[in-house]
Amino acid sequence: MPYRRLPNTDNARIKALRTAIEKASETDFQQLPLTPHLLTEAQQVLTRLERLTLRYQQMYEIQVKANRQFLTKVKNVRMYLSHFVQVLYMSVMRAEIREDQLTYYGLEGEKLVVPDLTTHEQILAWGEKIIQGEDVRISRGGVPIYNPSIAKVKVMVALFREGYQNQLLHKKATSRVLAEIADYRETADNVICRIWDEVEKNHMALPGEQRLERNRQFGVVYYFRKGETVE
Description:
Layout: E1 3-4, H1 10-25, H2 36-93, H3 120-139, H4 150-202, H5 208-217, E2 222-223
Antiparallel strand pairs: 1-2
């Protein structure tokens, strides 16, 4: 005897519910293998599950689009921070800036190597250190570094920070909807299981192949093991 298996994706859950509802709508009331109460519940569950999945798709698409724009900001801020630090190091090597002034930037232990800017958190941390360091050095009579100027670096860091915060908000919103869907799957599975139970119970007296076919029309999914036949 074949075994049935509940849907394991949200699209499959929606398909199972929609199939049962559509088949019920074209079935004579006297021959309907589902109670009106269960059918109404199925319609409500389908509506909410469709809305949740649509919301998730929309928010995910917004997140992906925003991320493409954010990657440009990441590239730019890394480039400007790296170039600024390299110019700073060159000024130290030419004795235009004292090496001990690297302390202002938190670069005293970097051995004239550009700091690691791999992660977003590192970019934020070093961006703040470098901006503050240049401001302190200038306030103590130092000549500003140009090409790039600290003003340009500040703009790139600010744009990056804004984009980073927006990405965190997008991810949080998307994750929240995804969590709602995950919580609702149990409800959807419960309704689908009850639909299939009622359908199978009402068609129990039919011959094997006919019974399976009628059940499939209401969305029941069957799997055969190797060598298995309909009883």
